[in-house]
Amino acid sequence: MEHLVQFAQIQGFTAIALGLIIGFGALGACIGIGIMGSKFLEAAARQPELVPLLQGRMFLLAGLIDAAFLIGVALAMYFAVANPLLGKILSAAGAGQ
Hints:
Layout: H1 2-46, H2 51-81, H3 84-96
Helix pairs in contact: 1-2, 1-3
Subcellular location: Cell membrane
Membrane topology: Multi-pass membrane protein
InterPro entries: ATP_synth_csu_bac/chlpt, ATP_synth_F0_csu, ATP_synth_F0_csu_DDCD_BS, ATP_synth_F0_csu_sf, ATPase_proteolipid_c-like_dom, F/V-ATP_Csub_sf
């Protein structure tokens, strides 16, 4: 019975951690892209002849920011589907019987 309680606690804490990982990752990506976009518009207004150069770099950085967020989402989904922390509890429960 003790292993079942530990199993439920790990699942609960994992769910909270997943929400935090995805939430803070999305918040950071949104803030980063917003700041970068405002700086791009400011630079484009000051020197319109540099827009093609700046636009390519802006899209590259937007892709990198989104990639960092998606790596966090992938890691969170890994823990949601195949949680390695539960393996220890399951092996301990199997050995205890």
